[in-house]
Specification:
Layout lengths: L3 E8 L9 H17 L4 E3 L17 H5 L12 H10 L2 E12 L2 E11 L5 E6 L19 H4 L9 E4 L2 E7 L6 H8 L5 E6 L9 H4 L2 H16 L2 E6 L2 E3 L2 E3 L4 E3 L5 E4 L6 E8 L3 H5 L5 H4 L2 H8 L17
Parallel strand pairs: 1-2, 2-3, 7-8, 8-9
Antiparallel strand pairs: 1-14, 3-4, 4-5, 6-7, 9-12, 10-11, 12-13
Helix pairs in contact: 1-3, 5-7
Bound molecules: 4-methylsulfanyl-2-ureido-butyric acid.
Length: about 325
């Protein structure tokens, strides 16, 4: 039996440093209205959708830095988005920088939430795979200081039973890691929601950076197919404060096929009528984990951080 959900990815063009939360929320509401008018029940916004991508700068002033984070959700400024969600009866995924005060310490996470059609938060995810570096790197036009401004998420990769299916979340760099999808795949996820901010010069190696678009889709299409799940990826893109960022937001089916893709580098809504039951055929055949996975064979190295070095002697040479 098919189980359809009409889902949208709301790609965003650049968010300027000077743009206020109120201005950004107004943009998000416009995108949400368009998604709803095209039949969507759920709309996915990008990672760090409420601000410019501030990890591109070294910010040493604490007050200036703290201003990029949300201390509460919803806040006075973001409440209109939740109200519109409730009024229209459409759920959403939203990425933002989160600041938590625990006793005398501040904890910072790169976070996303899942909000139901009543404007109620049903899930929170904190980004696990933080790219970039903790200290500024000389010679870079734009820094990527996520490792300085966030700690690795403490949520793991949970899934939620909502919107008539099983949904999970991740954020940007997470999409490149097979473990992200597999941990959710093992919980029978049917749709993974994710937002991203991907500068075209993220590695500094022209040959790798030249494949940014290819690697973006490769990661999401492989993750979808190998785990029999839909993947909805929403970019923040275009030239943001001098940094050129990838668009090509997509909705990927469990077959690995692209069901919808953004064509611009600006605010743009794409939609798909997604059958949440579509992955079942894959889960009962080629990716029947219970029948075909061999976790015992993976266990020896799976928990290691870093690669296991190859044997010192080449033991594959036959004499
Ligand atoms: N935001 C984010 O995670 N971006 C990374 C690129 C930066 S790597 C220095 C990504 O994987 O798209």
């Amino acid at each position: 039996m098919p189980r359809f959900i009409h889902v949208a990815a709301a790609q965003m063009g650049p968010v300027a440093k000077a743009e206020t939360r109120t201005q950004v929320v107004r943009r998000l509401i416009e995108l949400m209205r368009e998604a709803k008018s095209r039949g969507a029940e759920l709309v996915v916004f990008p990672e760090m959708a409420l601000t410019t991508f501030f990890p591109r700068w070294l910010i040493e002033d604490q007050t200036e830095l703290d201003a990029y984070y949300e201390c509460e959700m919803p806040s006075h400024e973001t409440a209109p988005l939740f109200e519109e969600s409730r009024r229209l009866g459409i759920g959403f995924y939203l990425g933002y920088a989160e600041l938590v005060r625990e006793g005398g310490t501040k904890r910072r996470f790169n976070t996303s939430i899942l909000v139901d059609r009543n404007g109620v938060i049903v899930g929170k995810y904190r980004k696990v795979h933080l790219p970039g570096h903790a200290d500024p790197q000389p010679g870079r036009e734009h820094q990527h200081l996520e490792k300085r401004y966030f700690e690795s998420g403490d949520t793991g990769f949970p899934v939620w039973r909502c919107f008539g299916g099983v949904l999970g979340m991740c954020l940007c760099n997470d999409r490149r890691w097979p473990e992200t999808y597999r941990v959710m795949g093992l919980q029978a996820v049917e749709m993974v929601l994710l937002g991203y901010n991907t500068p075209f010069t993220h590695t500094g190696h022209a040959d790798i950076d030249g494949l940014t678009s290819f690697h973006n889709h490769l990661s999401m299409q492989a993750g979808a197919y190998q785990n029999a799940t839909w993947v909805v990826g929403a970019a923040k893109c275009g030239v943001e404060e001098g940094s050129s960022m990838l668009g090509q937001s997509v909705i990927v089916a469990p077959s690995g096929e692209i069901a919808a893709m953004a064509l611009t580098l600006g605010d743009e809504v794409i939609t798909a009528r997604a059958d949440l039951a579509m992955g079942q055929r894959y889960r009962e055949t080629i990716f029947d984990f219970a029948r075909h996975r061999e976790p015992g064979s993976y266990r020896l190295i799976i928990d290691r951080k870093g690669a296991v070095p190859p044997p010192e002697k080449d033991e594959t040479v036959f004499e």
